[in-house]
Batch of 4 targets.
Target 1
Amino acid sequence: MSIKKATVGLVSGILLSGAITAPLAVQAAENEQFIPMPIYRTGPYAAGGTAIFGGFMDYLQMLNERDGGIGGVKITWEECETAYKADRAIECYERLKNKGPTGASMFNFVNTGATYATMERAKKDQIPIVSIGYGRADTTDGSVFPYVFPLVTTYWNQSTTKIKYIGMKEGGMDKLKGKKIAHIHHDSGYGKETIGLLEAQAKKYGFDLKHFPVAHPGLEQKATWLQVRRMRPDWVILRGWGVMNPTALKEAKRIGFPADHMVGVWWSGSEEDVIPAGKAAKGFVAAGFHPGGDNFPVIQDIRKNVYAKGNGNVEEKRIGSIYYNRGVIHGILNAEAIVAAQAKFGKRPLTGEEVRWGLENINLDEKRLKEIGAFNFLSELKTSCADHEGGGKVKFQQWDGTKWNVVSDWVAPDYELTNAMVKESSTQYAKEKKITPRDCSKEG
């Protein structure tokens, strides 16, 4: 049950008993910060949706239980089922955007298609969209995209780190020349997001690249992997999602391709992606912007303040999993945006426009990460008008058959390449939409 629903029920019960007056009940309802939850508990991507949004809600509930909310303001939310479909996400956006005393704080769809579909609506309504580790990479440019925040790291930056990882394993970036890399990708906006970037990297480093789209949901891949076998690649980049991932790992094993030469996007690097593949997944490598595990103070605070009280939004055994921890990071970054905005606008319920300012002024340095129990759980992050990503670095993890192990330090992206592409793409978007970019030198 959402905290919002619980609060409303409590207030109704008190009113019926005559224990307090109506004005006090209204006052209590008004001291809330509403965050929509456009979740997907159904469909082929439900494993990701339930764990990510579960961790997200658990973190917010922990703040309510431990701290009384943020700055004395209770955080509330309401779920709306999207089934990972863009049209249903739009319906959820319209249904939830005016909830709460000040409307929706921000939307987190965890869905690239939904983010694309609602960007213009959100801009008109002055409600920010948070796309942590997914969505349009050019929305890093806040001068053109003031209401979209691809926090932590974008697909483009992550893609350059994957090629860097392969280069490190080959003995240097110069050793990539002449290598063959197969790009197995989900045939969707999400899956196609890095095609142009990969082609630019192929030109820069001299490797041969071929793209292999896989139709949703990804259960039929035999013909694709027969083509991969004919190509005889040195490496495979897996840009999958949901059931596509274990299917790909099984098909790779069937044609004899080694799992330790497959590098996945972070949406291919959860327990739900590898456990169903069994032995075929052992050795598989995936990018990540956070580790798994529950040995972090922030996760222990959730156990103590939420699960020890019989609450919680996922099965307790999923705490510490990759998807769950990603959801906690969603909670942290949404909350830190509110903290930043409250410092400027006051400790009260904030509008979407005020939260947008907060998202543009997050400063998660080492000191703050330690304060919230997330040191080594999340990399340092600092956003601005010009930079809506705020980070960019990636770590790589490898599946040993039972757990994920971190196998690299933080790998910095090829900023020279990605920044140029972001500027080119955002400038073109501004031209097409007749947008006058903000002067970020005047923002503060």
Target 2
Amino acid sequence: MIAHIQRNVLGDPLIPCCPRLSTGFMRNGSCEIFREDGGIHAVCAVMTKEFLEFTLACGNDLSSPSPELGFPGLSEGDGWCLCASRWQEAFEAGKAPPVILEATHEAALRIVRLKDLKQHAVPPMDEDGGE
């Protein structure tokens, strides 16, 4: 069986979002998309204090650890696969975090405009999770 190559918003093969964190729907460090992912966790975003405060105010606390779920809690500078709709919501509120285009799945384009993602683009992270 031939594996389907998942592509990023630039049309190239998808690269990992944050190698040191278990992000993504499958918790494999990549913003890959699967049928079961109703939230479309497609946008590889680099966390900012402003975005973490915004998403907390929206009812999604990404800063606090949840050891029972294996979630370490996120800090400024961490890469994380966000739901495309949450990134769009943050964008409309002027709180959108930077994105790594090469690690953002093309499915994000169902909700987010490439032009808007490009305005917030940063380089991919290295193996340690830094830019």
Target 3
Amino acid sequence: MRQIFLDTETTGLSPEQGDRVIEIGCIEMDHRRLTGRTLHFYLNPERRNHPDAVKIHGLTDEFLADKPLFASVADELMDFVSGAEIVIHNAAFDVGFLNEELRRLGRPKFPGFVSAITDSLLMAREMFPGKANSLDALCKRLEVDNSNRALHGALLDAGLLAEVYIRMTRGQNALVIDGGDGEGSAAQAALEAVDFGALALKVVQADDAESAAHLTVLTELDKASGGKTVWRTLELVA
């Protein structure tokens, strides 16, 4: 199963009011193994950043001034994500921005290019109800090292999300994860092929001394209970 972990940074919070995407980061995973394929763009939003947004991602207007427009990377982005399951933390936010960028180009909405969109924030809320479920909170809870995350960054956050997702979903698939070269699936198949009903269990009988010691213990327990031990009742029924 091919999955893409995706994150964006933006000039503000509202695509409807003209805020734009300024960074896109994607990391590919196939059958729960990172493939090493990534996609990363900084983009010129053709507008100024909101000051509060710059405090979060650190991408200034001056830095973005010579970066490409979304229109020039749209084809490459859509080719990369095409047909994959897309995993996004707070998917409604990122998808809303991508839909608006595509609308400006007269192109279909983002979900039409992919097989599915999974919101890891909704997953986390189901797994950890009533707790903080930001990416930073999940990294701390699931022991994912995010010490390099002084500022938000799309590619960095996509990588952290991939690690968080693996830990959130561990145990859903085979017992052997990331075996490499099919070893995991082969090991699982071997486990499933074992016929435990054909195994002959070795029975070790107690010797006379052990039987006598056991009877002594039972007799003492019977006396201590005033003759109310359960095995006496069972012996009478038998």
Target 4
Amino acid sequence: MQTDPRFLEVIDFDYELPAEKIALHPLAQRDASKLLIYKEGVITDTIFASLPSQLKCGTCLVFNQTKVVPARLVFEKSTGGQIEVFCLEPANGEQDMNMALGNQSPLQLHCLVGGASKWKRETSLTQTKENIELRVEMIEKTVDAFTLQFHWSPAHLPFSALLDFFGQTPLPPYLKRKPNQADFTRYQTVYAKQEGSVAAPTAGLHFTTKTLEELQDNKIRMESITLHVGAGTFKPVKAAQMQGHDMHLEWIDVDLVFLEKWRNQLDNPLIAVGTTSLRTLESLYWLGVKVAKAPTNKIPTLSQWECYEMEKAGLSIEQSLDALIQLLKKKKLNKLVTQTALLIAPGYRIKTVDALVTNFHQPRSTLLLLIAAFIGEDWKKVYRHALDNSYRFLSYGDSSLLWRRR
């Protein structure tokens, strides 16, 4: 009987992660990280620089080309204390962070606030430097964030200029350190193009220009999509069962040309670089199913549990992509921009890819549940091997190439 992910016990996806196994800093060389390869139940160890030699000619790698914005702001209080503001997403729900970066003053955002108890609601926080001023007001406290209003002068400057001027690299909270100059480049993939994420798609941090050139020389195809990593990536699963956990909507941006290429080359192996790329590809399949089953002129979105309710649709990838492509052409759009909250957990059947390049994730996290859905109970075997063989964990940690169990 197929598992219903809503009733999964989160404690079943726990493991002991010693603090010394967490990589606090990146290695000197991106591609010097270890690479664990899992295929048909067998684990082998190598280094990431060898990835091009591990893949067959004709394989296609799909990268998430999102770019991390300097979304961390530190304000000094007149009393000497500090308040940290971590920008997450526009408050209106109609824009992604990429769109908001072009906005002029004022702008409302959902944010995490460090030291919020020290911030009196009736006062504003201010930074001034070189005739540029940024002022922030607290509007309201939401369930798991704050709504803040940003004002700046000169008001004609885009918000991106303010973040470039005042912002810092938004390192994951579990690193428990301040960002340094190295993080500015290393917490960013070498192929990042489209600004809009508040966290890096960390599977891509291992790739170097040399690695990409070797992949091309070996006739490995490389395609790009975009998922802007949002607030949900930092949200721990606190509920006892998955039905009590809410996934944040994240924006995806995919070119029509990519959809057409994918549709025409379905016979070749497809590998997602990172969980964000995998979630995007799987979301595209289900968005196509929605369009095929209920034709519409509107661009659909995908909620957290919706795919499980459509599981019996029985559409092929070809049929799904055809429906999505036809909708975009009908609307004369050259790209698909929409939102997904897809949760991939055991009980979910992967539709689109053969393998996944990914790092090693936190216990009891939605990312670990995705890995368990991808390779089954062998996730425990893989993580035990990594722990026993000095692999480095989390964002700046080592990598793995996981082939899906058939």
